[in-house]
Amino acid sequence: MTTWLAILGTALSCYLVKLLGLSVPAGVLERPLVRRLAALVPIALLAALTGIQTFGDGRALTLDARAAGVAAAAAALLLRAPFLVVVAAAVVVTALVRALG
Amino acid sequence: MTPPSAQDPSRLPPSHVADDGSRAVVRDALGVGIAVGASGFAFGVTAVGAGLGPAQACAMSLLVFTGASQFALVGALGSGGNPLAAVAGAFFLGVRNAFYGLRLSELLGLPRWVRPLAAQMVIDETTAVALPQPDRRRARIGFLVTGLTLYVLWNLTTLLGALGAGALGDPRRLGLDAAGPAVFLALLAPMLHGTRERLVAGSAVVIGLGLLPVLPAGVPVLAAGLAAPIVLALYGLRGRGARADGAPVRDAQDERGGQEKPEARENAREKPDARENAPDGPDARENVPDGPDARENAPDGPDAREKEAHR
Prior knowledge:
The complex is a heterodimer of chains A (about 100) and B (about 300).
Chain A: H1 2-23, H2 32-55, E1 56-57, E2 60-61, H3 65-78, H4 83-100
Antiparallel strand pairs in A: 1-2
Helix pairs in contact in A: 3-4
Chain B: H1 21-37, H2 40-49, H3 54-63, H4 67-78, H5 83-94, H6 96-108, H7 115-119, H8 124-130, H9 136-168, H10 179-188, H11 195-211, H12 219-224, H13 227-244, H14 250-254, H15 262-277, H16 284-290, H17 292-297, H18 302-308
C-alpha cells in the first residue's frame, strides 16, 4: 500500500511539474539563479545515486562486483558507446565478476 | 523520462539540410525513441528486483514516465528507504522537466487544451529532438514522434522486463543490480562539461556516501542535492568579485540561443564563467582572450559534441 502511495505521489508530482513548465508564462521561472540550480541539482542527485547504488549495501558501504560493472560503464561512456551498450556493459561485467568470485 | 538518447540527434545530418525536412526529423525521432525505449526492460527488471510487483512497475512507466525518477524511486524503496524521502528524491530529479517545458512551450506553441496531454511527454529525449529543429512544424513532429515512440516502447519493455524478471532468476547473479547506477552514470556523463558541474558531482558523491551510514535510507541522496546550492554559492562569491571588475555578466548570454538543445545551453552558459574567473589572477589581462582557463571551460568545441553524444 505504501508502495502504491509512493508511486502515485511520484507520478502526480512529476506530472504536475511537467505541466507547470508548459503552462507558466515564459520568464517566470527563467530567473538565472533558479535555472542554474535546476541544472545543477540533477547533477548532484544523479552523482549521489550513482555512488550510493554502486557502493551502498543497505546503510553500509561495501566494495563488490557492482564497482567493476560501473567502471565498465564509465569506460563505455568514454568510448562514446550508445546508452544500451553502457548499461549492458555494467550488467555483464558485474555478472562475470560475481561468477568468477 | 530519461535514459539518454543513445543516438544523439546532433550527430545525425541536420534536418534543414535535407530536401524533405519532416522525413529527417521523423528519422531522428524514431532513432532516439527506439534506442531509449528499449531500455525500459532494465527498468522493469530492476523494479521487480527491488520488490515491486509487475503492476507497480508498469504503473510507474505509464504514469511517471521520466526514467531517472523511476529508477531513483525503486532504488530507494528497494533499499527500505522512507517513502516520503524516496518520493522527494524522485520529484527533485523530475523538476528539470519544468524547464524543458518552458522552452518547448515557446517553440511548440501548443493550444491550451493540448498541454495536459503533451505534458507527459516533456522529458529529456523529446526536448533534445525538438529544440534544434529549425521551425515550429518540425519541432512539433519531432516532439510528437519521439514522445509517442518512446512512450509505447518504454511501457512495452517495462512490462517484458517485469514479467521476465522472475524467469531470469536472481537479478544480482545476473548483475542487474548494476543497471541502475549505470543508467544514472550515463545520464550524468553528458552533464559534466564544466569545472562547476564536476565539483557538484564530486561533492555530492562524498556527501551521499558519507551520510549513508548515519541517515535513514533515501535521505543521504537528498542531502547530497545540497551540493548544488553550496557550490553555486561558492562560485557566486567569486563571480561577484569578477563582475565588479567589469567582466561580462553570465546572465546576458543566458538569454541567447533559443533554438539550442538543453545541453548546448548549459554549455553556452559556461563560457562567461571562464572570463569571470580570469580577472582573479595576476595574469588576468593575458588570460582573458584565450588563456588555458578559457579553453578548458568553454565546452563549445567538438569535445562538447562528443560528450553530448553519450546522451
